[in-house]
Amino acid sequence: MSLKFVEVLLLLSIATLGLVRANLEVRMESVEKIVGDEETLVDFDVRLLGRERLLNGTVKVLVDLDNEVEFAHEIFAHRNGEWVPSSIGVRYKTCMYMSVIYDKYFLPFLKDSDLPRGKDACPLKKGNYYLRNVEVTAENWAHYARMGLVKSVLIIRKNNITYGGVIFILVLQEKVF
Fold it and tell me: What is the CATH number of the domain that holds 36?
């Protein structure tokens, strides 16, 4: 095996493990809640405040979200005036979503919130959870994230019926030093 081949394999392994981070800046442009088809069981009553565009508000969970509930999270890139689905998207039951996606990608932003963490996050218990001054950063995002306008859509479903969700529009750009 040539040394060049080994170097390429090592580089791909590091990138796959997420050890290479991008120097990205993120700005939240808008947030919009998704209402349920028949009823809304998870209500994202949130808004962006100030020049820093910090997320504030409450997440109202009207029933316990057990493993019968599916979290579908999809990412779209804005290309040529249209939202184009990216290859980044997941569909997990509550417990898997909370432990794999929420804990890794969202929990680091929640410095002032009472949203459950770790093992307390599953099942997600009924209640009103506050979010205060949430600033999204790209510290834990991989280097292959698309630059420009990005739409992040989280839909909460059970038996193919939507019970709530949230849409974020973000701007990703490389940090200027």
Answer: 2.70.220
